[in-house]
UniProtKB/TrEMBL annotation:
Keywords: Membrane, Transmembrane, Transmembrane helix. Pfam families: His_kinase (PF06580). GO terms for cellular component: membrane. InterPro entries: Bact_2-comp_sensor_kinase, HATPase_C_sf, Sig_transdc_His_kin_internal. The keyword Transmembrane helix applies. GO terms for molecular function: phosphorelay sensor kinase activity. The chain crosses the membrane at residues 12-31, 43-65, 77-100, 120-143. PANTHER family: SENSOR HISTIDINE KINASE YPDA (PTHR34220:SF7). This is Signal transduction histidine kinase internal region domain-containing protein. Residues 158-234 form the Signal transduction histidine kinase internal region domain. Signal peptide: none annotated. It comes from Spirosoma arboris.
Amino acid sequence: MQLNRQLVQNKSNIVSLQLWIWLSVLLLIFFSLLPMDGFPRSIIYTLVNTLFYAIIIYGNILFLYPTFYQKGQTSLYILLAILFIVFTGIARGFITLTLYNQFVVLPTPRDTGLLTLLGYIPGGILTFVLSLIFRIAIAYFTLKQQTEEILIQKSQTELALLKSQVQPHFLFNTLNNIYYEAYREAPRTAGLIERLSEIMRYFVDESPKDTVAITTEVQFIDNYIALEKIRIRHEVLINFEKKFNPDLRIPPMLLMTFVENIVKHGIDKSSTQNQIDIALEQQDGYLLFMTRNKVFDTTPVHRSTGFGIANLTKRLTMLYGSNFELTIDKQNGLFTAFLKIPLV
């Protein structure tokens, strides 16, 4: 709500500034002409010329400039700008002289021939140049407004983050208290509570970061698997090979899609023959991650086309462009997922 009020106020300030500028132009032109031309001529000249100044300036900055120049059509922009200046100059001269002849008593009516009207074009050229300066000024104030909006949003985000951290930290403290109580009666349950606490802390503290320590990511995967195994009736044999430098850092939650797929689709809860192979290896400047599990009759045929894989592919493209390898293969009764990413 506060942000919206600030945005409305900023836009109102820009509009007010423009109104004050045009009012100043009107008064400046009028009082500069009044001593020599008198009141009627000064009014006519001031109103007509200010109107055409506005047409030239706003016609350029609101239509010609964004429609053609900003889209790379420079030649067309120059051609249309010339035609626009010529047309407005002739129109300004014709209207000014016609009003002079109509409302101002002159010994000889002003000539409205083409040569006379062409004499009004140079003034339009100067106004057009001023419109470019005006365009730069608007861009400056717009950039300033956007900067203020970003700062306001940043402040509100930081405030919301501080508020959001209160409840998770309260929950972590509560889980720790439950852990110590459970440790006396049921050590295994206490261990699971500890893993849950670590998972939640990962989501709150680590997942918003651009990169996390690979050991933190692996610990998160281990905790996730341990908690998921609670729901499985029979024991699951999991081989998790790890060969990497513990100092490595990778984007968070990058490997979890495969692990989640294994838990959801690669385990038969009624079978005693569940085996999962996971390998994470550093090799020649790349990180290799592979998961393999047996395909059961209940495994969805089109599992690899789910939103998880699609979203992961989009994220990998954003992070690494085309410099990654992602393959999913199903053959000989085994489902294999392989990911290869560069180490920066």
